Amino acid sequence: MTAPRPLIAGNWKMNGLELALDEARAVAAAVDARPPAARVALCPPATLVHRMAEALGGACVEVGGQDCRAEASGAFTGDIAAEMLADAGATLVILGHSERRAGYGESDALVAAKAQAALRAGLEPIVCVGETLAEREAGRTLSVVAGQVRGSLPAELAGKAFAVAYEPVWAIGTGLTPSLMQIEEVHVAIRGELTGMFGAYGAGVPILYGGSVKPSNAVEILAIPDVGGALVGGASLKAADFLGIVEAA
Ligand code: 13P
């Protein structure tokens, strides 16, 4: 089985007004002019999903959401369904980001239900996992991450397009990154869980790394075995920085 193309996805989090679409257009122009080895995606706030998908229509850059509700519709004020993201032009959705697990108490079971919703809507889920600093210091990284993988990925993902993103909570937005060996150790453990759950199919599922990825560290991180791309926060907000990471893949 040939390895899938790496995926470099930008997570804009709660950043970006309409003017920020200029950055997305600049990314798309560069990617279209010189197609990179990687697939490239941008996940703007929900208010920009439709406008970004329209602005990039036909370009090689995919558009994703940052979360969805498990239900397809209903009385859930303020929430957004996977079907709505797909209707707005998204093809992917980030699920179980640590900022949602911590800020909204999202459990593995809820993340798994959201992943099923994504499949129902034809979206490719990027399911995030990662340990806190306290969990790492207690020597619990591998057991925490393995438990999140097992609990957050429903069996229905077998044979479907999806990715896992390893994002150590303490590396997000801090400028800190694990050592290359620490990243490799966790990715190998995640790969073991994926093959245990999905057999041979699990061997090809991309495992992205996220947490303070920047142009200056992207080459060495993306060269680690079993790192199949990156989920990029702060450095995805500026086209030049994001393109520096895309080109490293
Ligand atoms: P930073 O790249 O800003 O550390 O954020 C990582 C992240 O949370 C991506 O989802």
Write up what this structure looks like.
The structure is a single chain. By secondary structure, this protein is of the alpha/beta class. The protein has a single domain (7-246), classed as Alpha-Beta Barrel (TIM Barrel). The chain is 41% helix and 15% strand. It is built from ten helices and eight strands. The chain has helices at 21-33, 46-55, 82-87, 98-104, 108-120, 133-137, 141-152, 180-198, 215-222, 239-246, and strands at 7-11, 39-43, 61-65, 92-95, 124-129, 163-166, 207-210, 229-232. Strands 1-2-3-4-5-6-7-8 form an eight-stranded parallel beta barrel, surrounded by seven helices. Helix 5 crosses helix 7 (141-152) and helix 9 packs parallel to helix 10. The longest helix is centred in the C-terminal third of the chain and has 19 residues, at 180-198. The radius of gyration is 17 Å and the shape is globular. The mean pLDDT is 97. It binds 1,3-dihydroxyacetonephosphate. 1,3-dihydroxyacetonephosphate (13P) is lined by residues 11, 97, 167, 172-173, 210-213, 231-235.
Overall SS class: alpha/beta
- How many domains, in number, for the residues? 1
Number of separate strands: 8
Query: How far from one another are the termini?
Result: 20 Å
- Return the CATH architecture: Alpha-Beta Barrel
Indicate the percent of residues in helices: 40-55%
According to CATH, the fold-level topology is TIM Barrel
Let me know the largest β-sheet: 8 strands, parallel, barrel
